[in-house]
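Students often ask why inverse folding is considered easier than folding. One informal answer: many sequences map to the same fold, so there is more than one right answer. In these notes we will look at a single instance of the problem. The structure comes first.
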């Protein structure tokens, strides 16, 4: 789709940066983002993780143009065709190797979730390997979920849209956030080989009842007893809710990364040291609710506190109501907007739909030409839940032939 003659859609500030770029790529609309940290004295303009995301979009598309002002406070993005890991489009051996710089303070999910949204509409399968000193696989203080939660709470949702084959997220090397929240030196590979013309229309109106809880406790470069302490504290809260609770323990050594600092012997330094917990509750109708915590880079938080915090966070996610959690709502609503020209319905908690970033998502969708949302009360008259109706735009995958 040519975007040269289309009017640019104007946005301001770096708010919802990843979401706006993703929607622009899906709809083929050029966008202009102004006032990106203009008042910052130390680091005005684009942050390292935002530049990394732009490089990723450039790698998985063909024909995209990115123009950044001298100060970095203004960005013009004209999306191209989503080609994925097609031969000749930057992939080597069918794999795009994307390096995340050391200054990145966002978790790997900041890049994975937008990439997963683009993957079903790609011309070829997507196979991206994330490496480098900036890869953080754990949850972060910036609000990013862990790679485990992407794998267990986000990717399974695609099956409800008829997208389920050859999808895999491999955590090859774990890492937590390092000093000042930077670094990690982890390694993650996303394989998304199911491309469709149009996602199926979603009708999800029955949240069901929680039947089981699964999770992963992980520690990197610290004693394995931290995992046992987190699991015991979390189970003490969750067991009365459901007896079918199982949390897997994953212990790994801290990754080494080449350092230019002469103070480190051998020129290598340990990175990504820490521990964390990811929990997912599944209902009788297959609805998923997740929670994520990780040790802060400054340290000082005992594993028991993290285990209890994660368990309480999971209970809050379930208590919010609806068939989709707050973390997964942007993915579900975006796929519903990109589906066939029919009305899809999903039941959400009122606390979920009233969240600031969900409201911003609806406004951005309307600005980029997607349908606005409709609301009505639930059939069961639940006080804290509402039914959201979304009419699919029917844009679909322009890179695939209509069969």
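Output (designed amino acids):
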């Amino acid at each position: 789709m040519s975007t040269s003659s289309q009017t640019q859609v104007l946005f301001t500030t770096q708010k919802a940066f990843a979401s706006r770029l993703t929607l622009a790529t899906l709809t083929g609309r050029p966008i202009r983002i102004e006032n990106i940290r203009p008042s910052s004295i130390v680091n005005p303009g684009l942050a390292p993780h935002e530049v990394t995301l732009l490089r990723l979009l450039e790698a998985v598309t063909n024909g995209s143009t990115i123009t950044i002002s001298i100060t970095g406070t203004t960005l013009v993005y004209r999306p191209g065709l989503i080609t994925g890991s097609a031969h000749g489009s930057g992939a080597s051996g069918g794999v795009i190797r994307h390096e995340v710089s050391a200054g990145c303070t966002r978790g790997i999910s900041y890049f994975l979730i937008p990439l997963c949204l683009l993957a079903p509409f790609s011309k070829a399968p997507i196979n991206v390997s994330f490496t480098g000193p900036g890869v953080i696989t754990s949850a972060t203080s910036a609000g990013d979920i862990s790679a485990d939660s992407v794998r267990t709470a986000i990717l399974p949702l695609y099956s409800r849209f008829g997208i389920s084959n050859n999808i895999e997220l491999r955590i090859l090397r774990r890492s937590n956030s390092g000093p000042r929240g930077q670094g990690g030196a982890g390694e993650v590979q996303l394989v998304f080989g199911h491309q469709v013309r149009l996602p199926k229309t979603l009708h999800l109106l029955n949240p069901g009842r929680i039947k089981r809880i699964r999770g992963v406790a992980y520690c990197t470069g610290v004693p394995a007893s931290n995992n046992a302490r987190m699991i015991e504290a979390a189970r003490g809260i969750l067991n009365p809710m459901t007896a079918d609770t199982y949390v897997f323990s994953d212990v790994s050594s801290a990754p080494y990364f080449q350092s230019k600092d002469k103070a480190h012997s051998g020129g290598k330094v340990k990175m990504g040291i820490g521990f964390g917990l990811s929990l997912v509750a599944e209902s009788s109708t297959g609805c998923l609710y997740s929670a994520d915590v990780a040790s802060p880079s400054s340290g000082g938080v005992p594993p028991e506190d993290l285990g209890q915090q994660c368990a309480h966070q999971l209970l809050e996610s379930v208590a919010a109501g609806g068939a989709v959690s707050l973390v997964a709502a942007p993915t579900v609503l975006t796929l519903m907007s990109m589906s066939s020209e029919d009305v899809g319905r999903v039941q959400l908690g009122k606390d979920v739909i009233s969240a600031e970033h969900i409201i911003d998502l609806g406004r951005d969708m309307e600005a980029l030409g997607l349908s606005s949302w409709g609301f009505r009360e639930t059939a069961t008259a639940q006080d804290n839940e509402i039914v959201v109706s979304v009419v699919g735009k029917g844009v679909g995958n322009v890179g695939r032939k209509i069969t």
